[in-house]
Amino acid sequence: MIQELSPGARPDIELSIRDTFGLDVEGTVPAFSTRDEHVPALDPSYRFDPATTMAILAGFNGNLRVLLQGRHGTGKSSHIEQVAARLNWPCLRLNLDSHVSRIDLIGKDAIVLRDGKQVTEYREGLLPWCYQRPVALVLDEYDAGRPDVMFVIQRVLEAEGKLTILDQNKVIPPNPFFRLFATANTVGLGDVTGLYHGTQQLNQAQLDRWNIIARLDYLDEGAEVEVVLSKVPFMGEAERGEMLLQMVRMANLTRAGFAAGDVSVVMSPRTVISWAQNYRVFGDLDFAFNTAFLNRCDEAERPLYGEYYQRVFGREPANTAPEDWKRV
Known about the structure:
Blueprint: E1 13-16, H1 17-21, E2 28-31, H2 50-62, E3 66-69, H3 76-87, E4 91-95, H4 102-106, E5 107-114, E6 117-124, H5 126-131, E7 136-140, H6 147-156, E8 163-165, E9 170-172, E10 179-184, H7 204-207, E11 212-215, H8 221-231, H9 240-259, H10 269-282, H11 285-292, H12 302-313
Parallel strand pairs: 3-10, 3-11, 4-7, 7-10
Antiparallel strand pairs: 1-2, 5-6, 8-9
Helix pairs in contact: 8-9, 8-10, 9-10, 9-12, 10-11
Protein name: Aerobic cobaltochelatase subunit CobS
Domain ATPase dynein-related AAA: 66-191
EC number: 6.6.1.2
């Protein structure tokens, strides 16, 4: 059950972009001075991509609709959440999987008990609830949404567009501080790689309503090392710093192989973090690699991944269990 959030709440302070996000940019962005339970948890070690951060800040500052596109594991959703966390801006994520229907989004009649009697009562959906409040709504997996759901969203893509609830003969104007974001793995033209099953071709008239479409790519080598270290500090101890650099280089080889059409599965930063965590558990780098990544790859492509591994580590990954069960 979503707790009540005052529709009258409004940003009451201005934060420096340079001081808050570490970007070499003059200017401020509106923010709330207090946090509530809808504000995402703050990750102090989060690393911001400058171009993506500026696109998101433009959405918050100017009430622009922002769509982030990029491959899995690049941190699209977390980027929006971490900006919201620093602005103390209430933020909710909705995953547009195939089970999310129009009535889930808009609302529906429900039978409730009142004074010992069953009565029918209209229950508001997430979209009108957010639309009337100072909330940043993030539509995850935007390119996987059902067509009937997407047409509901189309109206609220206009900054001054009113949301019509036909079931209630009601027209809802937007809260001045409602913000809308979305993330997608494809650019709305469908999936030609086979990586993202369930994604759809998007209505180009709807895509045209997004004010900003930003692309978020994988981090550079040094930045990715820092991200993994922030999640698995263990990898920065003793001689493991050089090992972590090699792990990131291995991930970059899979990405280059994917771009060239040689392999069909890439290692995301999330995969590298899982690899580091598994290494801490098992104490065996090869076994950790197999369990974090290789075992979900196509059998025919495993020799190529073995070749990438050979280039980086000077050996192919051993397909054996660790000799000792120990936490390193």
